[in-house]
Structure formats: structure tokens, C-alpha cells
């Protein structure tokens, strides 16, 4: 009698993990062009030697996210290829690392950025459950900083930090005006300037005066009830102006009334709209005798570098700074997050929670 052999069942293949994301395949407003998508998570074995695979916990919005998205379609066809997954800032947990990555380990909490050049070349931003990113722009997160807070550090925090320290060289006992002190960049700028030993005056609306005081502003000017120029003239002189709004040409034109002759006037609110480009031409080329300013207006652009992430992380923790969070939206409510960010009424950072277990 032949011996009966028992068939053995082959193990079921592991299910492929699904990556979810928001993308756009043409330029336009977020509500018109953003849509959900799905695909496989990149296999860990396919990572380049210096790449990291991150399970994203949170991302945050920056004005650049919707400004690039709504760029005129003619420019979009020239400068971009599609589809694009938006958002530069992220926090999360490392799932896999390339063979040359030494400073990050699987399971480690991290934060980082996909700068705009990477975003336009790879089309892979952080509004996604999983993200493959450059290890040089990803850094371990101190235990004292939450993943939610870390998601807001990226573009906004580093812009304020690099502008005030490397561009403007702010130092102890100098006097600084922050225009737009309640926004994502402005809330960081106030804290950084105070940590550097500067005296800060902010320009904001009534509802944000208390917040600016709490962050460290000595003087707060309410642009809805006060004449900003007169008030600055009364408090003058100032060493520098940090403009996180970029729309008040009259204030810039009259900066000689409150800003020292060798003072700096730096703005970060660049846009692709024709109205902004016209304003930039006025600031850059209109001579003083035709109504221009005696001060040069510097359009500052963040230069993302690996050492900057480390320097800002250390500075943030050493000076017990905080990320001001305006609101936290679910992944499914990404459109609501964009609407809030574009409303010009958000205070601090608009955050999107990507992972339910974050």
C-alpha cells in the first residue's frame, strides 16, 4: 500500500501595503485639481544608498504648496511634469534605510523636508502615507518634541531661522519689526529673535495681539485700528524689518521714517501672481525721487541644507520654542486644510494628520 503523502499548503504571500496620497495632474486651485490616489509602497530593497523610507505621521502646509499648485497653466507646462504629490514638511517613523545611511535607524522618529527642487524633480511630496526621502534632509527627533509639532518645523521654521541668523545677522539688543507675526513663519520669527536677544515689534490684527505678546513681542501694532507707519515712527529707530506678508508697499516706501539708514528690509512672501511681480518691480527699480525707498528690499529664499536641519533642531530645543498649531485636519480633509491655509486667517501652522496611529 502506497504511503499517503500529505499536501502542504504554501504560505500566503504577504499583502502589498498600500500607499495613499493626494495628487494633482494639472495646475489650478486645490479644490479644482487635488484628488486622492493609491499605489504600492516602494520596496525597501529598491532604495538608493542614501534614501530613507518614512511612514508619514503628519505634514504641514506652506503658502508655496498652493502657490505652485495654482501657477498659471502656461508656466506649469514648462516648469512641471505631472502628477505631483504636494507638501514639503513631514514627520514620521523610519521604515527602511539605504545601505549608506548611518545616522538613522528603523523605528526612529524623524522630521524633514522635501525642498521645492526635489519636489519638482521627483513629484513626490509629503501629502502621502509613505515617503521616500533623502537622508541628508531627514533628522532624528528629540524626545521632547512631538510628531505633530515637528511637522511644522520645516519650511516655515527654517526660513525664519536662516533669514534672521544668516541673512540679517540679528544679534542681542537689536530692534526688529516682524510684519505678519501670527503666521507660520512669523510665529517662529518672534521666538527666534527673542532667543537671540532682540527686541521685537509685531504687526498683526486684533485677534492675534495676545499671541504675539505670548511669543515674546515687546510691542504689538494692530493694523486694523492703528496707523502702522505712525506707530513705528513713534517707536523708532529699528535695525531691521522682517516682512512675512509682502504686500504693504507704502510701509516699505516710507521705511526711512523708522528704519536706520543701514537697516535691512527682508521679505519672504514671494508669489507667482502678476500683482506680486509688479510689486517686486516697484520695490526693485523705482528710484527714491519717484517714490521708491532708500532701503533695499531683499527677497529671501530658503536654502535648505543638511546642517540647517541640525542647527535649527538644536536651537528649537535649547530655547524651548514651540510650533504654534492653528488646526489639525485629517488626511481625508486635506482640501479643508488648504482652504484654511489660503484664508490668510490661520495662526501658526495648518497641520494634516496622515497616520491614524500617530
UniProtKB/TrEMBL annotation:
One of its GO terms (molecular function) is oxidoreductase activity. GO terms for cellular component: mitochondrion. InterPro entries: ADH-like_N, ER, GroES-like_sf, NAD(P)-bd_dom_sf, YIM1/Zinc_Alcohol_DH_Fams. Pfam families: ADH_N, ADH_zinc_N_2. Gene3D superfamilies: Medium-chain alcohol dehydrogenases, catalytic domain (3.90.180.10), NAD(P)-binding Rossmann-like Domain (3.40.50.720). Residues 28-352 form the Enoyl reductase (ER) domain. Residues 1-20 are annotated as: Disordered. It comes from the Eukaryota. This is Peptidase. It comes from Schizosaccharomyces japonicus (strain yFS275 / FY16936). The lineage of its organism: Eukaryota, Fungi, Dikarya, Ascomycota, Taphrinomycotina.
